[in-house]
Amino acid sequence: MSDTTSHKAFTLYGIKNCDTIKKARRWLEDQEIPYQFHDYRVDGLSSELLQAFIEQVGWEPLLNTRGTTWRKLSDEQKAAINNTEAAQALMLEQPAIIKRPLLISKTAASAIEKCLIGFKAEQYQQFFSHD
């Protein structure tokens, strides 16, 4: 871990029992990278936080259209998710529909610096090697 990494705060967002979250957490712990875990079901999700995510990556990449939560929606509900407001309302109502994990790097001033959606060891390696 580089010196600059130690001046940043890392937060992993998701749901505790998700297998991909478990892999990401294990990777971070194996690399001895300190991070906070934010469980949407336990810690909640504010509209302000979700808006910050959307501003960073857009609503389309955040929306998990391959998961169970999406598949349970009716065709009418799916068709209605065609803009930021509709997607944000759905994600606030059903946080399990947000792709996970979402890894956030914040600067000392608590501004979101960069985000990474999903987990692949190579992508995490690259995410941290650029610090």
The percent range for helix content is: 40-55%
The CATH architecture would be: 3-Layer(aba) Sandwich
- How many whole angstroms does the radius of gyration measure? 15 Å
| Uncertain ranges | 1-5
Which term fits the overall shape? Answer: globular
Protein described:
The chain has 131 residues and is α+β, with helices and mostly antiparallel strands. It has one domain (9-129): Glutaredoxin. The protein has nine helices and four strands, in the order H-E-H-E-H-H-H-H-H-H-E-E-H. It has helices spanning 3-6, 19-30, 40-43, 47-57, 59-62, 68-71, 75-80, 84-93, 121-129, and strands spanning 9-14, 36-39, 102-106, 112-117. A four-stranded mixed sheet has the order 2-1-3-4, sandwiched between helices. Strand 1, helix 2 (19-30) and strand 2 (36-39) form a beta-alpha-beta unit. Helix 4 (47-57) crosses helix 8 (84-93). The chain is globular and about 45 Å long. The N and C termini lie close together (9 Å). Residues 1-5 have low confidence and may be disordered.
Key traits:
Glutaredoxin; 4-stranded mixed beta sheet; 16% strand; globular; disordered N terminus; Thioredoxin-like_sf; Arsenate_reductase-like; Tscrpt_reg_Spx/MgsR; ArsC family transcriptional regulator
Give a summary of the structure in a few sentences.
49% of the residues lie in helices and 16% in strands.
Write the layout of secondary structure elements.
Blueprint: H1 3-6, E1 9-14, H2 19-30, E2 36-39, H3 40-43, H4 47-57, H5 59-62, H6 68-71, H7 75-80, H8 84-93, E3 102-106, E4 112-117, H9 121-129
Parallel strand pairs: 1-2
Antiparallel strand pairs: 1-3, 3-4
Helix pairs in contact: 4-8
